[in-house]
Specification:
The protein is α+β, with helices and mostly antiparallel strands and 376 residues long. The protein contains 13 helices and 10 strands.
Length: 376
């Protein structure tokens, strides 16, 4: 089978590639040294239609298919994995839950703003005591007439400091998990410390505290007790998105390694002429192609409306492992230069690691894949 994009998908690919070369590359240094959220770039992404690329046109989105969205994350992440994850979280778990489970009023109010980039979305599920074990979350939501009162805390919230809406999960009556759309100016919502991370500098990750936080009844997402279903419903698309981010990291690392190997000379010849280096590059390129096929195959299943839990987990697991392996190999090709901040490869190395952890650790992906194999 040949992986072939449609004419429209090719246009998206070229447009995003041009955008990263013209607008993004020059900002990487500031994002890294200042750990600065790229607000101006995200605003430009909104104007280009990227923040709502797969949202229906009737809600102000670009109305493109899921594969086009994956192309955007892939191309962004070749240059800036930070922008890849900002878009992935905003779209897959910050916007889609409202699109799929929201009332007509919620869709009309929130989706156009999220699709245009006027609003930035975030997802508040993980807590200090509950990560992969979603059902053990402790945050509570008490029915208080015309509103709910939320108490608890969340951690590792991507886009957290800049977000306008948070898809938030809490325990309601009968010890069930329910979902809520919490706005940034909600009374009782406090944005906590910004995490100092190994990589992804520029993507702000924060803690959230809910101290008698008031959330109007109209901001209940779905029905009471549907929170777990809502949280799980977007895992597949989220995992494919992180697979695309990982693919971008791997491909970016490979491109830099090839260029460096051709330019760097030792013993009067480019290091690419050494079989030890050329074979590394051959293996790296092969792994990139394998990851690409897994990621885009999973995306095609989403576009066809087919089940893809196994394929999404495979894509996320393999692509993220590939990103980490290729980043390590690229640093080795760069030698001592690869260990310095003067060259971009150390950034790919730091950015790659988290892809094996978030959107479900790769250990969880093994469980999902095994269960799919054994229960079918």
């Amino acid at each position: 089978m040949e992986l072939r994009f449609t004419e429209e998908q090719e246009m998206i690919c070229k447009m995003v590639r041009g955008f990263t070369e013209k607008e993004v590359a020059k900002e990487i240094g500031r994002m890294e040294t200042e750990d600065r959220f790229p607000k101006e770039i995200v605003e430009k992404m909104g104007k280009l239609g990227l923040m709502g690329i797969s949202i229906p046109e009737k809600y102000g989105g670009s109305g493109m298919d899921f594969t086009s969205y994956i192309i955007a994350i892939h191309e962004l992440s070749k240059v800036s994995p930070v922008l890849g994850v900002i878009l992935s979280v905003h779209s897959s778990v910050g916007t889609n839950p409202i699109l799929y489970f929201g009332t007509d009023e919620q869709k009309r109010h929130y989706i156009p703003k999220l699709a245009s980039g006027e609003y930035l979305g975030a997802f508040a599920l993980t807590e200090p005591g509950s990560g992969s074990d979603v059902k053990s979350l402790k945050t509570t939501a008490k029915d208080n007439g015309d509103h709910f009162v939320l108490n608890g805390s969340k951690i590792f919230i991507t886009n957290g400091r800049e977000a306008d809406t948070y898809i938030t999960f809490a325990r309601t009556e009968k010890d069930e998990i329910s979902a809520f759309i919490v706005e940034k100016d909600a009374n009782g919502l406090q944005i906590g410390k910004k995490e100092k991370k190994m990589g992804l500098h520029g993507s702000n990750t924060v803690q959230l505290s809910f101290d008698n936080c008031i959330v109007p009844k109209k901001q209940l997402l779905g029905k009471l007790g549907e929170g777990f279903k809502i949280a799980m419903s977007n895992l597949n698309v989220g995992r494919i998105g992180i697979g695309a981010q990982s693919l971008g990291i791997a491909e970016g690392a490979l491109q830099h390694a090839i260029y460096y190997a051709k330019e760097r000379e030792q013993f009067d010849k480019p290091i690419a002429a050494n079989q030890g280096i050329s074979f590394k590059l051959a293996d790296m390129a092969t792994e990139v192609e394998a990851a690409k096929l897994l990621v885009y195959h999973a995306a095609s299943l989403v576009d066809r409306g087919q089940s893809c839990a196994k394929e999404a987990s495979m894509a996320k697991m393999y692509a993220s492992n590939t990103a980490m392996r290729l980043a390590i190999e690229a640093v080795q090709i760069f030698g001592g230069n690869g260990y310095t901040e003067d060259f971009p490869i150390e950034r790919y190395f730091r950015d790659a690691k988290v892809t094996q952890i978030y959107e479900g650790t790769n250990e969880i992906q093994h469980i999902v894949i095994a269960n799919q194999l054994l229960n079918n």
